[in-house]
Specification:
The complex is a heterodimer. By secondary structure, chain A is α+β, with helices and mostly antiparallel strands. Chain A is built from 25 helices and 27 strands. In chain A, strands 2, 3, 4, 5, 10, 20 and 21 form a 7-stranded mixed sheet that branches. Chain A is elongated. In chain B, strand 1 and strand 2 form a beta hairpin. The radius of gyration of chain B is 21 Å and the shape is globular. Chain B starts with a helix and ends in a 9-residue tail after the last helix. The chains are: A alpha+beta, B mainly alpha. The interface between A and B is large, with 41 and 54 residues.
């Protein structure tokens, strides 16, 4: 037995030695390979730790745009399929007990997991709030009670939300895709708002040990804006009320093609409110339900490709000859450009689109129009609101003394044109102040002629027209080609420029320039962001008011304040005055291209209070939806409604006595306000809107009428854009530069 | 043999106690706990939020085991001869109890009994069989040396092996139980031919299965065991499924080099080698302590087996010697099979490494067996007292 025992022992020993040899062989033959394998299957992959996008707050710290931490639920099929599928059902139970919207049904997910056993990353629910997923989170962490929940993890990310929905939508902009700001502050300050993402990653240290390191994310900065949410909502409420009141009134559609209001502080350049109409919900910017998507006729059904789209072009041309308005295109330049223009024809006809494509294009165009900030991106002829600028230039240069008298017979002949005043019968004799009060075109053409084109254009540039204001918003229109060039300017151009026609401006240019007229002559760069804070709320940078230049002297500025006050107390701006306050301002009614089509931009530029301007308000209504448009009273009434609420909010005291009528009106408004305080914003707005008086006496102002031009009778204009058509090439020309333009680019649309 | 002699010289009246074996056992237990902590801390903190979860459970079982070892050591092992038949019967009953509600499943295998404490009947059966067959072989005496006796004795081991295989679906325990009986019978008979023929026969059967699997006649669809053979033949081809554990263990072994990455420095234990604290603990030893560490562990087992050899050779009687042979067979088989599986020398089957792998029942019953060996060693009568 001992012998056998020894044999057994030896056999065991042999086995041990054999296994030792095997161990050695594995190391010798495959050691290097396996070592690499071990290193290669470590997780070096880095996980992005998303940075939180900074907030946007108003001047009082009210949050307008916030980023909320949300969670994606991610499943790892590989793990879930492990252990002979034992984890699958318990994990699915836990998932579908969680009250969130899954991208897949339970059966779909089960199918996915079993048919994709190697998938390790599949998002099954997106952007869920903490409250919704916290039960699931607890179950995943509780390994003892729920040992079979495996292969589920939560990935955190941030969701941009706008607590006020559509409020200040054009100013704020929105975020699309991967934290890319689109439009407004979100785009302009995109890199400031976006922090730097952190990372968690693994690496091998000197000893070939894997280490994992976390580099914490650097959260984005918070923008403190000069916007006041309360003023902004008052403004938007009244804009909406106006547009709802005139909805479908004259033609089908909104109450105006666009309505823009800017309220800013003339002493700092800070924007308190900036709004336009229509608005969109920042939380759902792609919602097209409120949009009229007009699909152009230029599409074809599939297969029917050879549609001749040039027909329409021809048709346009013949239509044009009827309207035949003279234009401001400088003679000569148009002809020169015409010769080169022919090549461009070729690029025009694109392949015919299918209806779907045409619809998509139209939808995108409509959305882009909706997202665009009318106040900075759209250009138009300012009309009579430019008159104070002309006057200030004359006063500053000493060309105008302020004691001149003008005689208006209703028409003035400049060059080959007879240019009518808004009052066709003439204003008769007008004082200097009266010329502004009555907004007399003839008087201003006289002034323009006295100032001369070079001085006029010098001031035009000094007021920053043709230049960008560099407001901190994206999409500011470039207007350098939309103003006259002093070298090619003809007397007619000067004449119509003096009352604000013939060249294009943006609202923000007008408002910023006007601020300098009434604040002592200081041109402040308009801006919205006043402070940038870091994640902890500490100030990173302060954006102080920036004086760019002095446009006019303080004396001239004081004189302008007085003159503008007269416009409201004596002249055309009376209806802009809110009860109990004295304000100054200037109305404007600019005829749009094509002339004589009855489309106008009506506006009011005002400031309050009259003797110590604290705010400047600029209201522009583009093509009000009414039978007879040329009435600045639409703009003045809107301005008055806004100021009636904004001034008390800003603690500006009433200085004027209230008439019985005004008292009753204010009481009614207050009552209406109280009555509907539980209702929605729009209902509120309607109540206030009903208080708007219908304009009794429509003031015909700024209606300019050009006589047929004998020299260039064949020049026609395009009815859609108002641009002249070159008679030799058939191309559209820019009225200001004479350059051929792309007909699709329109200023006001 | 020299050692007891030396001891006798120094302490003539003192009873023999095998301190060498005690030291080896305690060393293996402590080493096992250290390795267990190193291997399991990552997974246990992941699963239980407590890095020492496995360590604490194992330490408790080890303490219980040590107490039981001491108790068994103090009892005269001859008593167990009377319990030979009950040992067999109890073993069978315990295995069958798995089918009752007392049995429960862990990781998809129904191998455990919950009788106040959780017990793996297969482990109990190993002790039971060692006692039963020691007693049985002594009882039939010289008859065991006939071919008929050998066959009869081996056939007695078949029912319990089949039960363990079929009821608890535990092939490795069945192999070990049968292996223990086989070795005990082998040692107690003088001839070789039959055993080598039997071994050759078993080997041939196994080879046929392997060839059939290789040819694709038998596939994993028929039995998961064939799948394991497939994975054994070509672990890379099944790296995502059945071959994953084996391949990862090989990576661990191969990346260890001579002295390893250092204790606690394994990368493979971080979720790559599944259940590393159980069957695959040896691969992590290779990775952390290198070939040197692995050889040292094997050397310790070899020393322990050598101590068994010494005790068995000097045992007071045949019964005691056979008990020690049984324990020796048990531990050596388990070490050999475990290392063979880890090195992919044989197909994967769940065998734990004695004293080191995680498993409460295993360590308790192992220590009871060690207690039996000590009990035998304590009664060694020293020959040649005058020398």
């Amino acid at each position: 037995m001992q012998k056998k025992l020894t044999v057994l022992f030896l056999l065991i020993l042999v086995a041990f030695i054999g296994l030792s040899v095997r161990l050695y062989a594995i190391n010798r033959d495959n050691g290097e390979e396996y070592k690499k394998q071990v290193l290669s299957q470590q997780e070096y992959d880095s996980v992005t730790l998303p940075a939180k996008r900074g907030e946007i707050v108003d001047r009082n710290g009210t949050k307008i745009a916030v980023s909320q931490k949300v969670y994606n639920i991610v499943i790892d099929s590989k793990t879930l399929n492990g252990n002979e599928g034992k984890y699958l059902e318990p994990t699915l139970d836990a998932l579908y007990d969680t009250p969130v919207d899954f991208l897949y049904s339970r059966d779909e997910l089960r199918n996915f997991i079993t048919s994709n056993p190697t998938s390790q990353y599949r998002i099954v629910a997106k952007k869920q709030e903490y409250d919704a997923i916290s039960p699931l989170m607890e179950k995943i962490d509780d390994k003892v009670t729920y040992p079979d929940i495996k292969g589920v993890w939560l990935e955190n990310t941030y969701q941009r939300t706008y607590p006020y929905g559509s409020l200040a939508c054009d100013v704020i902009g929105f975020v699309q895709g991967d934290n890319e700001g689109a439009y407004g502050l979100e785009e302009y300050y995109n890199s400031t708002l976006n922090g730097t993402d952190g990372r968690e990653y693994g690496y091998l240290n000197d000893d070939e040990n894997l280490e994992r390191t976390i580099k914490a994310p650097d959260n984005g900065r918070t923008l403190v804006t000069s916007i006041d949410v309360n003023i902004q909502s008052i403004v938007e409420k009244h804009i909406l009320a106006f547009n709802e009141e005139h909805q479908d009134e004259y033609r089908e559609g909104a109450g105006s093609r666009n309505t823009g209001v800017i309220i800013m502080n003339p002493n700092t350049g800070e924007i308190l409110a900036m709004a336009s109409y229509p608005v969109f919900d920042l939380n759902d910017p792609r919602n097209t339900s409120g949009l009229d998507i007009e699909v152009s006729e230029e599409y074809t059904t599939r297969g029917d490709i050879d549609i001749d789209i040039t027909d329409e072009q021809g048709g346009d041309e013949t239509d044009e000859s009827v309207s035949g308005n003279s234009v401001t295109a400088p003679a000569g330049t148009g002809q020169e450009e015409g010769e080169e223009g022919e090549e461009d024809e070729e690029s025009k006809p694109e392949g015919p689109k299918t209806y779907e494509e045409a619809y998509e294009d139209a939808k995108m165009e409509a959305l882009n129009g909706l997202w665009k900030n009318f106040c900075v991106s759209s250009t138009y002829e300012p009309g009579s609101t430019y008159k104070p600028f002309t006057m200030a230039a004359g006063l500053e240069e000493g060309i105008l003394k302020g004691n001149e008298y003008f005689n208006c017979s209703g028409v003035k002949e400049v060059g080959d044109h007879k240019i009518h005043c808004n009052n066709r019968f003439g204003h008769g004799e007008l004082s200097f102040s009266g010329a502004l009060e009555q907004s007399c075109n003839v008087a201003f053409m006289d002034m323009g002629a006295m100032i001369g084109k070079s001085t006029f254009m010098k001031y035009n540039k000094l007021y920053n027209f043709g230049l960008k204001t560099n407001i901190d918003l994206t999409g500011e229109a470039v207007t350098n080609t939309l103003v006259f060039d002093v070298n090619t300017m003809v007397p007619t151009d000067l004449a119509i420029s003096s009352f604000g026609q013939g060249f294009n401006v943006t609202m923000i240019q007008m408002a910023a320039g006007f601020c300098s007229l009434i604040n002592g002559g200081y041109y402040y760069q308009p801006h919205i962001v006043t402070k940038i804070l870091n994640d902890d709320g500490a100030t990173v940078s302060n954006i102080e008011p920036r004086v760019l230049k002095q446009t006019i002297s303080t004396e001239t500025s004081d004189k302008m304040v007085e003159l503008c006050n007269n416009v409201v107390s004596e002249g055309t701006g009376r209806s802009a005055r809110p009860a109990g306050y004295r304000i100054g301002g200037k109305t404007g009614t600019a005829e749009k291209y094509p002339r004589k089509s009855g489309n106008y931009v009506v506006s009011f530029m005002g400031f309050a209070p009259a003797d110590d301007p604290q705010i400047v308000i600029y209201t522009v209504i583009d093509t009000p939806n009414v039978a007879s448009q040329p009435h600045a009273s639409y703009a003045t009434a809107l301005t008055r409604d806004i100021l009636t609420e904004v001034l008390p909010y800003m603690h500006v005291f009433m200085t004027e006595e209230l008439s019985e009528e005004e008292k009753a009106e204010l009481d009614e408004a207050a009552l209406g306000f109280a009555r509907s305080s539980n209702n929605t914003l729009s209902e509120n707005a309607v109540v206030s809107a009903n208080a708007i008086e219908k304009p009794e006496e429509p003031e015909e102002e700024s209606v300019i009428v050009f006589e047929e031009d004998a020299v260039k009778p064949e020049i026609k204009t395009d009815p859609e854009t108002g641009y002249p058509i070159d008679p030799t090439t058939g191309e559209l020309l820019d009225p200001n530069t004479g350059q051929p333009v792309d007909p699709t680019v329109s200023d006001l649309e | 043999m020299s050692e007891p002699a030396r001891r006798r010289k120094q302490n003539k009246d003192k009873a023999f106690f095998d301190y060498t074996m005690l030291f080896i056992v305690l060393f293996l237990l402590c080493f096992g706990l250290v390795m267990l902590y190193s291997v399991s801390s990552y997974e246990s903190s992941l699963n239980f939020g407590d890095s020492s979860y496995y360590l604490r459970k194992q330490a408790q079982s080890t303490l219980v085991g040590l107490v039981l070892m001491f108790v068994v050591m103090m009892i005269d092992y001859h008593i167990w001869r009377r319990f030979a038949i009950p040992a067999y019967v109890v073993s069978v009953i315990l295995v069958l109890l798995v089918l009752t509600p007392l049995g429960y499943e862990v990781n998809g295998a129904k191998r455990w009994l919950n009788i106040g404490v959780s017990v793996q009947p297969a482990e109990a059966a190993k002790v039971g069989m060692i006692i039963f067959f020691s007693s049985h072989i002594c009882r039939i005496g010289k008859n065991v040396q006939t071919l008929k006796g050998v066959v009869k004795t081996l056939l007695l081991g078949v029912p319990i092996s089949v039960l363990v295989l079929e009821v608890t679906e535990n092939l490795s325990s069945a192999i070990i139980i049968f292996g223990i009986i086989f070795m005990m019978v082998f040692v107690s008979t003088p001839n070789y031919k039959e055993y080598f023929l039997l071994a050759a026969g078993l080997f041939t059967v196994a080879a046929i299965f392997v060839i059939l699997v290789q040819k694709g006649v038998l596939t994993s669809e028929q039995s998961y065991r064939f799948g394991r053979i497939e994975a054994w033949l070509n672990p890379e081809a099944f790296s995502g499924t059945t071959g994953f554990q084996t391949l990862q263990a090989l990576y661990a072994i191969g990346s260890g080099e001579v002295f390893g990455k250092g204790l606690g420095q394994s990368m493979q234990k971080l979720g790559f080698v599944p259940e590393a604290q159980n069957d695959m603990v040896f691969s992590i030893i290779c990775e952390e302590l290198g070939l040197f560490g692995a050889f040292m562990v094997l050397l310790m087992f070899m020393l322990l087996i050598w101590r068994f050899l010494v005790v068995a050779n000097n045992a007071e009687d045949m019964f005691g010697a056979l008990i020690v042979v049984g324990v020796m067979a048990h531990i050596s088989l388990q070490v050999i099979l475990n290392v063979a599986v880890v090195t992919n020398t044989i197909p994967n089957t769940g065998i734990t490494l004695p004293f080191i792998s995680y498993g409460g029942s295993a360590v308790v019953f192992l220590l009871i067996e060690i207690g039996l060996v000590f009990s035998v060693s304590r009664r060694i009568r020293l020959r040649n007292p005058g020398n």
